Amino acid sequence: MYDVVIVGAGPVGLFLAGELALADCSVLVLERDRERTSPWKALPLGMRGLNAGSVETFYRRGMLEELLNASSADGELIGADPDAHEPPAPRDVSHFAGMRLDPADIDATALPFRLPGPAMEGIMTSLEAVGTVLTEWAAGLGVQILRGAAVEAVTQDGDTVVTRAGGRDHQARWLVGCDGGRSTVRELAGFDFVGTEPLFTGYTARVAFADPQKLAMGFHLTPAGMYLRTPFEGHLGMMDFDGGAFDRSQPLTREHLQTVLRRVSGTDTALTGVHLASSFTDRAMQVTAYRNGRILLAGDAAHIHSPLGGQGLNLGIGDSMNLGWKLAATIHGTAPDGLLDTYTAERHPIGAAILDWSRAQVATMNPGPDAPALRRLVHDLLSTREGTTHVFRSTSGLSHRYDLGSDQPLVGRTAPDFRLADGTRLGDLLREGHGVALDFTTDQRLHDAAMIWKGPIRYAAGPVSNDLGFGALLIRPDGVVAWTDDHDPDHEAFRRAATRWFGGPTA
């Protein structure tokens, strides 16, 4: 029997599998598809953006270099200058409803608790590149991956979950569905899935154009919808505001795609062939709870929305980072009461906010007689320094804050990448998936208290180039600050925080 069975070998399932294996849990991943690679995962159809928060997550697990190499990046580590005291200004900012904003308008001073470090920017990558890195990482940690195993049934009792897949029963103490927007696990386990119905049908395809010169490159909002052309040969994206009426069970023919393209582009362009094509909608749905007994959900299995802004993959990686250490502690019997329940409590509001961000973009793009006026107003507001900064904060993944019951503004946020005098960075200390106690006091005042939790919490002390005014911090395995204090740390407050997140003393 496994500790955990994960359904879905996409980035979310693989990241979660690695997190659990890092914490000495036995993990089996069941994947419906027989092959790991496909044209849908490679460029251009598999192109995805990882925001700064997700890139930081790969960095904190020691996979940033591999990710950059697999993504064909130039390998430059933005802001990694060891002598830098201020982070560089962001070089990019996401769009809102197709409206590109100028990164020069970002107010870097308004970005909370930002320090220079290797992971300062988002990157463009592909599902294939991310999958390659995560597959190698998870396999190296002992994760077993069974492909060609579609889930047929799920049953649970008070102690175990049995998943029938590929004609066999797989027993585990826990099951996590990471099997995408049409999650079989979600359906079989009876999760409530609620939200809003679609306004458009979207299409992504590789086609052959008879007259490509009739369609300009880039993202184009039109009176009837949107079309997108990229430098990749034949790559086409479209949004048709038909209320999601297209029957997705029907094949996508050349004739249908050409009809939609002509309508949304306002041209008489012709398609001579279709190599690959799929459709999607902006249906925005979320489960009411991420856990049902011994079954949990993560990624698109827990929430779906339109791909506008490219937040889906980032949201799923955040789910896995939040869930992994909590589920592992529960399995090992070291979790304090209610720890696993904080997964829904912390991630559900983040998911709901992303769904609303997506809905707002769709509403702004929705054609109609008033649409141009609304778009001009939104563009003017977002093009201000405050508006551009707000978009960057909202899409970078660095501004999310969990409500951990503290008024201290750093608590509940991802920790800055503090760098000790010996060159050690916080990212290095988090690599093995432990919590971290950082003590910046000259006489290591937190040492004795931190040593009581030796094992689940790694203690590190010393001066830093920029301590941001803190004397000590307790950081969870997911990189989130659980407690801070000034230059005279309160040992009792530290103990309360450590007990809350890591259970009773281990020494």
Q: Could you describe the 3D structure shown?
A:
By secondary structure, the protein is an alpha+beta fold. The protein is 30% helix and 22% strand. It has helices at 11-22, 52-60, 64-70, 127-140, 184-189, 254-265, 312-332, 341-365, 371-382, 385-396, 426-429, 447-451, 491-502; strands spanning 2-7, 27-31, 47-50, 123-126, 144-147, 151-156, 161-165, 168-177, 193-196, 201-209, 218-222, 225-229, 235-240, 271-281, 284-287, 291-292, 295-297, 303-304, 435-439, 457-461, 472-475, 481-485. The strands form 5 sheets. Strands 1, 2, 5, 6, 7, 8, 16 and 17 form an 8-stranded mixed β-sheet that branches.
Tell me how many strands there are.
Answer: 22
Helix content: 25-40%
Number of helices: 13
Radius of gyration: 23 Å
Provide the low-confidence segments as ranges: 73-80
| Shape field | globular
Structural class by secondary-structure content? alpha+beta
Tell me the span between the first and last alpha carbons: 30 Å
Q: What is the typical, i.e. mean, pLDDT?
A: 93
- Strand residues, percent: 15-25%
Report the sheet with the most strands, covering strand number, pairing sense and barrel closure: 8 strands, mixed
